[in-house]
């Protein structure tokens, strides 16, 4: 179809000028500068801090202890990032990472990640998002997709009511065909990288599967099909973690033998 060819050309032209590679060797489209992303991350984190109260000091120390152990195992350049983590009082079991090294964990996540190893899998996953430039890639993909749809609209006479309806369908196709799959790919990639990070720091990688078992019990039912979701299904995530567990366990055992045995008491 002509619209598909136009969209492909638009994306290809953008990728030729903004090519990058993720830590797993996957090609990425990155259109935004690091300074732009960091500023956006700082603003979003400040807003989050205004919207939600912080958890108590002991809980903050607990999350910081785990994050510090993982950050210590990053390459030197990435350790220079001003990593910050905060625990917020919210029942929703959620965590996030923003460009610039800003991380948040809701207190509700501590009901799902019940020990230091399980919380390390969550924090390692969030750090992996930042290391992999996923925020930049997702924003860049959305921007390139919108650009492609705009080109189609202006060159193919889709300003009529029928054409506008078709544009809506194309927009839906772009969302399910391009934007959401990129997000699912990001989640799966962060799972794999996070698994290695937590193991390198001396946290038991098998706890990552426990987290998703706990999450499924806590949030089960009413989930959209995986192809309509921004995240893989619980089963898909567990399968992906299982596929990389043997290597992660070897890394974990080596870390333990080298004295990396984190002890972050939960309050």
UniProtKB/TrEMBL annotation:
InterPro entries (alphabetical): Mito/Outer_Membr_Metalloprot, Peptidase_M48
Note accompanying the cofactor annotation: Binds 1 zinc ion per subunit.
Sequence ranges assigned to domain Peptidase M48 in this UniProt record: 59-242
UniProt signal peptide: 1-20
Superkingdom, natural source: Bacteria
Keywords: Hydrolase, Metal-binding, Metalloprotease, Protease, Signal, Zinc
Annotated spans, Disordered: 218-237
Residue intervals passing through the bilayer: none
Any one GO MF annotation of this record: metalloendopeptidase activity
Any Pfam family matching the protein: Peptidase_M48
Family statement drawn from the similarity comment of this UniProt entry: Belongs to the peptidase M48 family.
Name of this chain's protein: M48 family metallopeptidase
